[in-house]
Amino acid sequence: MTRIKTHCIVALLLTTVLAVPAHARFVQPAPCKNSFTQDREIAEGKKAAALVYKEMPVLPDSSPVTQYVQQLGAKLVQFAPGYQWPFSFHVVNQADINAFALPGGPIFVNLGTIQAAETEAQLAGVMAHEISHVVMRHATCNITKQQGQAPWWALGQLAAGVLLPGAGGALAAEGVGAAAGMTFLKMGRDAEKQADLMGADMAYDAGYDPRGMVQFFEIIQGKYGEGGSQFLSDHPNPGNRTEYVNAEIATLPPREHWIMTTPEFQKIHKLVSGMHAYSAKEIASGAWKKHGANAAPGGSQPVDLRPSGGWKTLDSSGFSVQYPGSWQALEKAGAGATIAPANGVVAADTDNSTVIYGVIIDNFQPQQGADLEAATNQLIAGIQKGNPGVKAATEMEDVRVNQLPAKSVEFLNQSTSAGGTERDWLVTIARGDGSLSYLVFVAPQKDFEALRPTFEQILRTFRMNR
To answer: pTM for the full model?
Structure first.
């Protein structure tokens, strides 16, 4: 697989709760019986989160998708009432529409949830719901009620139940997770209603249209039919969610302007629409571990190599380029981008981007005074250091890109994600400030020639903004 270091596109997660909601109408119920201190709840939640990372394909913090979810979570928790829990936000590379909260603050959102959401307000409603479960300590109240003061290892067994959200008892019967573990995330109907109401208020206070939560319930019901708004098996439907959430919204002061969606959501939604998300059965089988936490098995999702939909233009701060309308483009901070067909990109398991089909565009700063050839060799050395299997397949050649001198060289690389040998075509162009702009065109060796005309057309349209 080709791995090129990316830049963060959003701010790091803020973990401090800053304010109490100013307008929330939902009255938090009296604390439930709980044998956990707040410090112990936080400690046990961290242990449970570590087990989730071990047993589920969690995207890394360096993933643009995770960073976006962390940014959204940080915005919402400013309006979470009560104790300042150290919230953290994570994305599970799972197709099922679901999310879950662990004791003390760790919150996990399935990739399928982000793919299904149509607006940021809808996703904010889901996340505010989960934040509310943490605020009201529903998880440890459940444990206290069911098992008394459970030791941390019992909590770990409960956390293992998150392997099966939405999968029912069939997978548990196959030995994947203890049936007792499912009780950890199965909230009662009263707890679900409380989280709905507090979550609607929280989304409202953050500036979002709180109807986004109701809209998302309708999306789930449309996908799964009657009962679909249960957030799968671990979120039992308290009744007519749409009715009582709308009634709660009616108690909130009206606003002229709501946040429905944002450019950041639209960029991330475009990215995740082309990502492979694992099914519950794939996760239960452990097959994902063979490919890294976020890499899809080679060939598991078809990639349409035929460009369609005309051509679009990406205008970045450092360059402009055209690409097929059926492909997706994600800009990175600075002067970079990844452009790929649907299913051509899988999220990385380190702070890199893994591209199976597509083009990576970025800048490189060589040692001072290096000419184009020397600078290109420095870049190649850096790529090969991070990818020891990369071997040159052609000599370095002089080419021109829109009348500018450039260098071209192709490589072969053994890639598990590509299902065999991968071909990478590197083109470098000198910038006026002494840095390089470079493009890496990527595809499995067996498909590269079919994509070469598209790659060449992309290269012909590449222009630097000096």
So the answer is: 0.56
